[in-house]
Amino acid sequence: MQVGVIMGGISAEKEVSVNTGKQIIENLNKDKYEIVPILINNKYDFIDSVKSIQFVFIALHGKFGEDGRIQAILESLGVPYSGCGVLASALCMDKNLSKKLFASEGIKTPKWIIVKDENKIDYSIIDNIGYPIIVKPNSGGSSIGTIIAYSREEVKDGVCEALKYDNEIVIEEYIKGEEITCPILNGEVLPVISINPKSEFFNYSSKYDNGGAEEKIIELPIAIREKVEQISLKCWNTFKLKVYARIDMIIKDEEVYVLEINTLPGMTENSLFPKSANAYGLNFSQLLDKIIQYSLIE
Q1: Is 153 tagged catalytic?
Q2: Tens-digit pLDDT profile for residues 34-68
Q3: Domains, the chain, ranges and CATH?
Q4: Catalytic annotation on 13?
Q5: Is pLDDT above 50 for 206?
């Protein structure tokens, strides 16, 4: 089967995407697949390249990758692709909408407000939530444009910086606790990974610099593990996720808070999802094979 690997893109996460794409290409089973690298530099330069492809493995991150738009284009062309569909991708990319859905389903998530203008920030709400506080783009990933603010002045500076990447900014309660991530493959929760960043939070350098964070498979206490698995599957069903996704959480005082859902998690050999799959018993090549298999069934 011919598999096109789409990478690059137009978001601030292009470099991360290219690395993901290269490692997917390197680890796909060459005996099973004819692999076609497809590098995107603008929104539509890939269309002719995929029209005759039997399957597309999406190795994009950020806007025009995780937000449902490229999924919609591939569906209109009748080309099968990896991972979640248009609706799930769009919902999970929008942190504000995601958090509203979490709240409506009784899933705990840090308190937040949305800001669109650095001169129209309601500091009284922020002061009530308390400092420090997280400032980040509403639709984005890899913690690009994300800071921890300790004062009104830093909030405003953070909003100004985040507005370079998005026109809506999330100002969110900072919860100090144990950060974990829960990969799900075809509706099954894989081994949980604990994340202990060297910095104050899991920022860009923590995610991609060597030694930026300690990431390890953990066995949670039974009660917490059951709660984490229950919440993960509730997210899976509520957002109509399919094939694979990764849910980021914080545990504090035995309460579980969902931060966000990643519908196109990093897929290098050192990324969180492949680490979890390896602990489950799937090496990287087998994981990629499963993703293709489950995507074609969907």
Answers
A1: no
A2: 999 999 887 777 888 888 899 999 999 888 888 99
A3: 2-83 (3.40.50.20), 91-107+176-297 (3.30.470.20), 112-173 (3.30.1490.20)
A4: yes
A5: no
**Which pTM does this prediction carry?**
0.90
Neighbouring C-alpha atoms within 13 Å toward the C-beta of 250: 16
Task: Say which of 82, 232, 262, 271 is annotated catalytic.
Answer: 262
208 is catalytic: yes
- Find the catalytic residue in 13, 161, 172, 179: 13
Which uninterrupted H or E stretch holds 179?
strand 178-185
The answer to whether 248 is a known catalytic residue is: yes
Catalytic residue selected from 81, 208, 244, 257: 208
Q: Determine contact, residues 159/171, Cβ cutoff 8 Å.
A: yes
Whether 142 is catalytic is yes
Q: What is the mean pLDDT of residues 156-171?
A: 92
Both tokens assigned to 166: 């998005």
Per-residue pLDDT of 73-87, as tens digits, reads 999 999 999 999 999
CB atoms within 10 A of CB 85: 18
